[in-house]
Amino acid sequence: MSLSAQYLWLIPSLPLLAAAISSLLPRRARRLSSALAIGALALSFFISCAALSTALANPAAHLTHNFTWFELGNDPVRLGWLLDPLTAFMCTMVTFVGTLIFIFSLGYMHADENFKQFFCFLSLFAAAMLGLLVANSLLLLFICWELVGLASYLLIGFWFYKPSAAAAAKKAFITTRIGDLGFLLGLLWLYDSAGSLLLYDNGHGVLEATALGALGSAATVGGLTVASAIGLLLFCGAVGKSGQFPLHVWLPDAMEGPTPVSALIHAATMVAAGVFLMARVYPLLTPDTLQVVALIGAITALLGAVIAVAQYDLKRILAFSTVSQLGYMMLAIGVGAPGAAMFHLLTHAFFKALLFLGAGSVIHAAHHEQDIRQLGGLSVKMKLTFATFAIGTMALVGVPLFFSGFWSKEAILHAAHATSGSHFPFYAALIGVVLTAFYNTRLISEVFFGHGRSRSANHAHENSAVMTTPLVILACFAIVLGFLGTPAYPWLQARLNGETAVHGHSLFEGVGLMVLSIVLVAIGIGAGWMLYGRKLRLNATSPDPLATVAPRVHAFLGARLKFDELYAATFGLLSSFLATAADWFDRYVWGGIVHFLALLGEFSGTVNREADEQGLNAGFDATSEKLRGTGQAYSRAQTGDAHGYLRFLAIGFVALALVAIFGGVA
Amino acid sequence: MNALPLLSLVVFTPWIGAALLALLRGASPATTRTLTLLFSLSTLALSAVLLTQFDPNSLSPQFVERHTWIVALNVHYHLGLDGLSLLLVLLTGILTPVALLASWSHLSPSPKSSPSPTLFPSLFLLLQGAALGVFLALDFFHWFLFWELSLVPAFFLIKLWGGPGATRAAYQFVVYTIGGSAFMLVGFAALFVATGTLDFAQLAQYARDGTLAVKLPGGAHQLVFLGVFLGLAVKVPLWPFHTWLPATYSEAPTGASMFLTGVMSKMGVYGFLRILWPIFPAPLHTAAPWLIALALGGVVFGAFAAMKQTDLKRMVAYSSINHLSYCLLALFAVSYATGRNAPVGPAASAALSGTLLQMFNHGLSAAALFACVGILENRSGGQRGLADFGGVRSAAPIFAGLCGVALFSSLGLPGLNGFVGEFFIFRGVFGLHPAAAAIATLGLLATALFLLTFWQRVFHGPRAGVTATAFSDLSAVELATLVPLVVLMFVFGLFPGLLTGLFNPLITSWADHLTLP
Predict the structure, then answer these.
(1) Alpha-carbon dihedral angle through residues A24, A25, A30, A32, given to the nearest 10 degrees
(2) Residue of chain A nearest B430, judged by CA positions
(3) Residue A460's pLDDT is what?
(4) Angle A137-A143-A146 (CA atoms, 0-180°, nearest 5)?
């Protein structure tokens, strides 16, 4: 199978078509709408496989197909499609995981009255994400990027009648848009300096040597090169989309959406977009930029893991673990290992989708109970969900050798260790490993072990096959994917680097580091087991062991380090101040000046009238008395009906205009 | 040369309709409505004819009609159409019928509620013809007649069919705009005395070859520029000459608001492009840094002031200030960069194309938003506060969908029409004045904030306020109002080439020949 880049547009277009058709279908067309969505995405998956095989045949090539969108000035605006291993791997992953999530949604959303709408939005989401992946133009990428934002807005706020969901959707849109403004400015700068936004264009693209050389040598303020400044601005966009510190606040709130949406947004698609963007424009990133990327990534990795420790909401714990794992990916890009970042992105997509769908399975079974204190004992009632969830957790934690997350995280740790820059990211990543193991052990213990602590937990039972089958498939991938990139045979990283040969090391190269990380995982799991597994929670209200040790710290973590409060007190206040000021200025300052001028006019009018009345008019009055008789005759023509006047005004006006024109001609 | 005076037909057919309707005051409601729609659609039909014969590659005006009119004053009846005019004629042709549909109930009201059954449609058609005259006239004399005449029907439309504060708003609107125009008239009188002509092309030629600077030396030149500038700045409006706008737009009846924001605000921007920029390139260049600051004021404060509004119509009105300020920002940035040694052609053509696209697209989306607020008002008995509604999406999903598209188009979402113009304005402005582009992004953020607040408060959440009881989805007429606009939002969002194809050679030649006299 091979696929020319010319036909790459089919991959996003099929889901887009499905979305368009289903938006026009009536509400009752549930089966048709879901069948369209799943069918279109599955078809896109097969095309993506063809694309992957084409890309792997010649991994160093960037196959492109560029075309003119519209004429503007002397240089038409051009867009294009790009096929290389990065695009192909991502497309295959997104379509595959996406299809499974869509199928899972059949069961999960079964009872929802807006079922049809849900599949319409899902398709739109997939289309936007896939468009972003195949774009060979940063403009097209940005367009799809914003459409991803729209689709996430629609899906997070899917239960729009819930005020909390409506608020979360808006928050996600606005927060990511803040980052997008940076992205936009970077884009504009790049457009202006390079004259094009095509990534690859036979030597004229922005990621090709000529442009990179020019951008890297041009200096701007503060000793930065133009390339560094543009890179940092583009990174702002990635920070927003990928939930990096300090714009991570939207991500946990986005849990207001239905759980399959969380799986789609937080595993396979939206949040991956930022990491993908950085990997895509990697040739443009300078050491200065990379340093910042690594730093932000490290802070995010640590921050997400720390906050996750004190959350009680099942989905929020997973959300913060996503924040943390995305931090790892950014960190990997920052230390110069985009291959490792993409490896982790791919494995994470599978095991995090598995975890979210597993959580969905639990929530669906437990009548929408998602507080881990209320759950418990589900390992017996939901064996399949438990087994697959456990596999996902072990992949996330990085349990050695047999789980994909171990290998991809290892690759990142090695890269962070080997970097010539600061070692802060490396240490942050190590601490993150302990914390990840710890909070996941807590999660598993609270949800699956012991006894059910609420009616909903006690009445839970395993879901139907339409929901469990995707779990099983994802669980398999959560294991085997790791073997694509082991140090012994780093096939994936080699292909992403454009190499056909794979330079394997010994499986145990850098074994010291590997042992260290295994020990750290063991410490994390051990501590988690000591606190939560050994002595299981008795009832829903008994306090968290950590809360009894350090109540204030725990409360602070539970409140997510009060970032929301901080932003409300700063940016929120600033924007409402600006709004008030703008409004006040209009009403009182500009409005006041206008009123003053009006008063001035009125005053001078009064003065004039008085002068006229008292001085001039007195003499005329006598004369006009005589004229009055004549006036009376004419007054009969005046009906006093204002609208009659208007009508004659209109007629006379037209007649005059016509006479003037045609009379003037003669 | 065409045998038919096509452009005169474009301008005067609506007026003939107005006269006819004024005479047929006893006609049945159905006849009135049909006639009104037919006459308002004449522009669209004639534009179709124009489109088939229009040659985008010709840079001079086409379909020219030039006749001696008043010999003593050297005044000519001079109509002509280039890409810019054609774009606005098209916009007028699309928006007028739609605006009339939005005021459907005014087209044949019960005799008691309205002064005269055919007054509303007559005034509307008068307004349409006047606006078209502005877009096609190439001699100041009748250009100014059309410009001022457009105020008269607008005044009565607002005063007679507007909200509770309509009288005050209508007076403010007319006095304010005439106040601005008076300066412009004086300015042109001075120009006439100095040069002996009122022909735009002739005056621009004098400006290019330096004759104007000789004939109007020093301070007089600046003063004349200032006068013309004031007239146009009030009309657009440029911040801070905008205080008449929120009251006027919000008190006007729905159809008139749509026309005011969709078409009449473009008259101002058109004036900047057709008159001020070509005739006063040097003073505009000198003033550009200040004007950029004012345009930024409109972009940023317009958007932030919109956040503070609780009246939905005022909110949409403020968003218009914000959107039109982008157009002016781009033009000022081009003027600012004129005469620079570095090549500015690509950035300038992006900025100017963006301006034209934005003029057209803002017309579509702002008119659609006013139509949506009008639909809300119809169902709430005149209430249109942010807090008066809730959960409309549950009650009227089709309306919610169409209004959502309009909101996101106004917000600049890619894929819809609003994005392309804004993006290329930013692209151009960044190349010409990066700091201005960076500050203007604040406006993008604030716009997203208030439009999503609008959407969230009115459409989301549980059904509340007016929506809590019966709230019907769109009627056939309302669908006919919104659907064409929404379809066009998609069409021009995906295929902006349909529009840029009309004016690209023109813009490119402007951008490639930026010089100061």
Answers:
(1) -100
(2) A188
(3) 75
(4) 140
What ipTM describes this predicted complex?
Answer: 0.90
**Chain B residue with Cα closest to A663:** B69
- Residue at token pair 């849900």: A118
Mean pLDDT, range A126-154, rounded to an integer: 92
Q: Are A304 and A332 in contact (CB under 8 A)?
A: no
**Beta-bridge mates of residue B311:** B385
Tell me if B392 sits within 8 A of B459, measured CB to CB.
yes
CA-based angle A522:A524:A530, to the nearest 5? 100
| Amino acid at position B467, single letter | T
φ, ψ at A65 (rounded to 5°): -140, 110
Residue type, B172: Q
Give the bridge partners for A78, in sequence order.
A68
Residue closest to A129 by CA, chosen among A112, A114, A149, A113: A149
> Which residue from A minimizes the CA distance to B402?
A23
Query: Helices H, strands E: what count in chain B?
Result: 24, 2
DSSP B382: S
- State pTM to two decimals: 0.88
Q: Tens digits of per-residue pLDDT, A558-607? A: 777 777 777 777 788 888 888 888 888 888 888 788 778 878 877 888 88
B353 CB burial (10 A radius; 0-12, 13-18, 19+): buried
* H or E stretch covering B63: strand B62-70
* Cis? peptide before B237, omega within 30° of 0: yes
Taking each continuous run of H as one helix and of E as one strand, the counts in chain A are 29, 2
CA–CA distance, A363 with A371 (Å, rounded to integer): 9
Amino acid at A182: G
Select from B99, B204, B85 the least CA-distant residue to B161: B99
Q: Is B60 exposed, middle or buried (0-12, 13-18, 19+ CB in 10 A)?
A: exposed
Q: Given the DSSP bridges, would you call strands A77-83 and A63-70 parallel, antiparallel or unpaired?
A: antiparallel
Which tens digits make up the pLDDT trace of A27-86? 888 888 889 999 999 999 999 999 998 888 888 888 888 888 888 888 888 999 999 889
Q: Do A189 and B430 touch (CB under 8 A)?
A: yes
**Residue of A28, A27, A51, A38 lying closest to A100 (CA atoms):** A38
Which value, in Å, is the radius of gyration of the alpha carbons in chain A?
32
Q: For residue A311, report the phi and psi dihedrals to the nearest 5 degrees.
A: -95, 150
DSSP A565: H
Q: C-alpha dihedral over B473, B475, B478, B483, to 10 degrees?
A: 80
CB of A365 closer than 8 Å to CB of A463: yes
Q: To the nearest 10°, report the CA torsion of A300, A305, A307, A310.
A: 180
Give the pLDDT confidence of A334-359 residue by residue, as tens digits: 998 888 899 899 899 988 888 988 88
Q: Does the bond joining A246 to the residue before it have cis omega, within 30 degrees of 0? A: yes
DSSP bridge partners of A82 = A64
Q: A454: which 2 tokens?
A: 């609420």
Q: Distance of alpha carbon B423 from its chain centroid, rounded?
A: 19
Asked if B461 reaches chain A (Cβ–Cβ under 8 Å), the answer is yes
A vs B, Cβ pairs < 8 A, gives 196
Residues of B with CB below 8 A from A161's CB? 391, 393-394, 460-463
Chain B residues lying within 8 Å of A146, measured CB to CB: 413-415, 419
Peptide bond into A283 cis (omega under 30): no
Strands (E), A84-201: none
Q: Domain-by-domain residue ranges, chain B?
A: 281-517
Partners of B75 in beta bridges: B70
Residue type, B190: A
Q: Which two tokens stand for residue B191?
A: 């120009």
Find, among B436, B197, B113, B118, the residue nearest to A185 by Cα.
B436
H/E/C letters for each residue in A568-603?
A: HHHHHHHHHHHHHHHHHHHHHHHHHHHHHHHHHHHH
Distance CA A306, CA A560 (A): 9
